[in-house]
Amino acid sequence: MADSDTQPSVDKPNRVRTITDLAKIAGVSPGTVSRALSGNSLVNTKTREKIEAIAREHGFRPNQMASKLRRQKTGVIGVAIPLGHDVRQQISDTFFMTLLGHLADELTERGFDIMLRRVIPAQDEDWLDRFIGSGMIDGVIVVGQSDQFDRIEDVADGYLPMVVWGNHQEGQRHCVVGTNNRLGGKLAAEKLIAAGARRLAFLGDTQPIEFAARFAGAKEVAEKMGVSIRALPTHLSRDQTSEEIAEHLSNIEGEIDGIFAATDTIAVTCLKELRDRNINVPAQLKIVGFDDLPISSQTVPPLTTVRQDIAAGAKGLADLLLRRLAGEDTESLVLPPHLIVRDSA
């Protein structure tokens, strides 16, 4: 009976097997635990002492092999695509494939391999800490901030070799490469209005930071010019985009004469749907996209769009990451957008 009564205290240390287990007890993120146990000065003294005390109490020792691997060079760059805002979107999305193609060219020419991960943050809130702490990569490129801005900011406090493709905003701590999305939105709205449109719609999901900035820019111009604009949520997963666009067009037919699509992918799908409805572009409805993907010049009619230089962006991501791997704390790189005028507006 005595042995049975004391069994829980004997098993207690075995309940903490990983940094994640320890983090749950301490009430902090696994990344904070990892930094505290490695003596990182970014963790304040009180928190570090608390974590160390819990670790001692549970007999926890960090995985020495993983720690050793992290101190060595793997020759691998991690590329993570978080999809917190649209869990059904696929990496086969044309924009992702275009950027990843350029990025692979840049990194392999510099002697690095790539480890690619599609991430659903709702299923693993510590996805970024786990990736950088895996010992399998030398640094990480995050493609898109999605709804993970705060998570990326937290990691940036203690992890230098990370660069993010996304939108830059004043005061942020993580290093970004991306286009001036707000200015791009302004260019799109200005073009639609100059072409005669007075009742605009923005097709896209305004939750992701990049798309929100594009809509904000367009809205600023529309309000200044006395033109109406409404946001119509449109996702990028294959099984949703067509259905949502069809529904939007049914609801707004006759009420809208200009569409600003958050991406070329949305714009191309919209052109197809309008053609099926015998709605003439641009005579009856004008469209401007965003990205200037290769397909945008091949549509009927060819798509007017806001170009972001994806090839230059990929080069910037690689260049800044390599400088960070060398210990340099780099500034962000914000690329200028350019309006590419074709026949849809």
TrEMBL record:
<dbReference type="Pfam" id="PF00356">
    <property type="entry name" value="LacI"/>
</dbReference>
<dbReference type="GO" id="GO:0003700">
    <property type="term" value="F:DNA-binding transcription factor activity"/>
</dbReference>
<dbReference type="Pfam" id="PF13377">
    <property type="entry name" value="Peripla_BP_3"/>
</dbReference>
<dbReference type="GO" id="GO:0000976">
    <property type="term" value="F:transcription cis-regulatory region binding"/>
</dbReference>
<dbReference type="InterPro" id="IPR028082">
    <property type="entry name" value="Peripla_BP_I"/>
</dbReference>
<protein>
    <submittedName>
        <fullName>LacI family DNA-binding transcriptional regulator</fullName>
    </submittedName>
</protein>
<keyword id="KW-0804">Transcription</keyword>
<keyword id="KW-0238">DNA-binding</keyword>
<dbReference type="InterPro" id="IPR000843">
    <property type="entry name" value="HTH_LacI"/>
</dbReference>
<dbReference type="InterPro" id="IPR046335">
    <property type="entry name" value="LacI/GalR-like_sensor"/>
</dbReference>
<keyword id="KW-0805">Transcription regulation</keyword>
<dbReference type="InterPro" id="IPR010982">
    <property type="entry name" value="Lambda_DNA-bd_dom_sf"/>
</dbReference>
<feature type="domain" description="HTH lacI-type">
    <location>
        <begin position="17"/>
        <end position="71"/>
    </location>
</feature>
